[in-house]
Amino acid sequence: MMFRTTEITSPELTSDNPLHQRLLKPYIEIAPTLHGNLLEVGCGVGRGLEILRNHCDTYTGIDKNAKLIDWLKGEYPAENFIAMHIPPFAELEDNTYDFLVNFQVIEHIQDDDKYVSEIYRVLKPGGKAIFTTPNRKRSLTRNPWHVREYFSGELIGLLRKYFPEVDAKGIAGNEKIEEYLKANKESVEKITRWDFLKLQYRLPRWMLQVPYDVLNRVNRNKLQSQAEGLVIEIKDTDYFLTDDLDNCLDFYFIATK
Question: Is 70 or 14 the better-scoring residue by pLDDT?
C-alpha cells in the first residue's frame, strides 16, 4: 500500500529518496543499542520496522492513522499495533518499555509538555526515549503540517523538565546532501518569492496544508528531473551524527529516565 503525501514520505517514490534516506538514518543508528520492549510512537508506514523488530524482544507501534495501522497489522501480524490519538497514551501502562522511538513526531503534537510527560511515564526506570525533529534554523518555509518547530535550546529545556539526562546530537549531511539541499533551496525560493504578503506565516495551518502538499510534490518532481542521478544516489550513509546543533538538519536527542 502506498501513501503519497509529502508529509508521509514514500520509500517507493524516487523523488522522495533524499528525505526517505534522511528519515531512515535514525533507525539504523539506534538499532544496535536496542533490547527488551520497544514502543514506536508515530510508526507511520513502518519505514524502520524491519530494522527495529530484529533488535528487540517486543515491538509495539502506535499511530493516529487507523487505516495505516490496519494495513500494518496485515503486513506484520506478529507485532502489536494500536491506532491512538496522543497524548495521552491512554492504553499503555506505566514503566512498560525499555526504549521508545519517536521520529519526526513531536513537531505535530499540540500539547508537547503532556506528550513528553507521557513518554516518561511509560518508560521503565533507566529506559531511553529517542527523539528526532527538524532543526528550525534549517527550515526554508513554514510547514503547515507542523504545530511548531524547535530551536535546540527549546527542545532540550522541554525534555529536561522530565528527564534527568539528555544526550543532544543532530543529523547532518555530507557534500552530496548539501548539494541537493542547495538546489532545493533555490527551487523553493522561486516559489516563495511570490508570497509578497508572507501569507504562509499569517494564515491558519489548515488553509495551507493542501497548497503546501501540491507545491512540495511539484518541487520534488522538478528536482528529480533536473538532477535524477543525485536524487537516486543518496543513501543513508550520506547522513551522519554531529554535535553541531546549529547547523544540523534534524535533532537526534536521547533522553534517559
Answer: 70
C-alpha distance from residue 46 to each of 9, 23, 111, 149 (Å) = 11, 11, 24, 23
Report the distance separating Cα 235 and Cα 136, nearest Å.
23
How far is 104 from 143, CA to CA, in rounded Å? 13
Rounded Cα distance, 39 and 102, in Å: 9
Assigned domain for 4 exists: no
Does 1 map to a domain?
no
Q: Which of 198, 192, 114, 111 has its CA nearest to residue 147?
A: 111
Is the whole-model pTM more than 0.85?
yes
Instruction: Tell me which amino acid residue 236 is.
Output: D
Calculate the alpha carbon distances from 223 to 13, 185, 191 in Å: 13, 11, 13
Distance CA 220, CA 16 (A): 7
Count of structural domains, the chain: 1
Give pLDDT, residue 163: 98
State whether residue 4 is helix, strand or coil: coil
Paired with 256 in beta bridges are 128, 165
Q: Classify residue 216: in a domain, yes or no.
A: yes
At 7 the pLDDT is 59
Q: Within a domain: residue 136?
A: yes
Contact 198, 132 (CB under 8 A): no
Residues 103 and 27: beta-carbon distance below 8 Å: yes
Contacts of 75 (CB under 8 A, 6+ apart): 46
Strand (E) or helix (H) holding 250: strand 250-256
Range of the domain at 165: 14-256
